[in-house]
Each structure stands twice: as structure tokens, then as C-alpha cells.
Design brief:
The protein is mainly α and 89 residues long. It has one domain. The protein is 89% helix and 0% strand.
């Protein structure tokens, strides 16, 4: 699995996340019934699980990708903590 598949999987993850937010928004505004909301939510959960499985396979084949991602994420988390202390909540 190559870099393109990894990028595509990440893009799919972001798209599903966006769809989840939209689903929650339309539910909050009463534009969809609770049963429809639950059915759509389950579909999104299944799709998210499939994407996460694909990403896990990519990382299993190339552990350096996972290590690089962890390093980048850790740096961003540390920066966020520092911003919080400087700027407050």
C-alpha cells in the first residue's frame, strides 16, 4: 500500500468526520427522525471502522509511517498545551 492510499484513507476519515458532524447538526435541528439518525449513524460508524482498518494495515506494513505520525501528533499536542498556558482557556 502506497502513499496515495494512505492519503486517500486519511481524506476518507476526514470526510466521514465531516458527515458525522453534519448528521449531528441535522438531528439537533430536527431535520431527521431519531430512527433515521441512528441508522445513518451506524452506517457512518461502519465506514469509519473500515477506513481505520485500512489505515492500520498501511501502518502494519510500514511502521515508520506510524512512528512519524506519532511524532508529528505529539509535537502538535505539546504546542497546544503551551498555547493554553500562554493564552488560557
Amino acid at each position: 500500500m502506497g502513499e496515495d492510499e494512505q492519503r486517500l484513507s486519511r481524506a476518507r476519515r476526514l470526510a466521514i468526520s465531516s458527515a458525522r458532524r453534519e448528521l449531528n447538526n441535522i438531528m439537533e435541528h430536527g431535520l431527521v427522525s431519531k430512527p433515521a439518525y441512528e441508522a445513518l449513524r451506524r452506517k457512518l460508524v461502519r465506514r469509519a471502522e473500515e477506513v481505520e482498518s485500512t489505515i492500520a494495515e498501511i501502518y502494519a506494513q510500514d511502521e515508520s509511517r506510524a512512528a512519524d505520525e506519532m511524532l508529528l501528533a505529539n509535537k502538535r499536542l505539546i504546542a497546544a498545551e503551551k498555547r493554553f498556558y500562554r493564552e488560557g482557556p
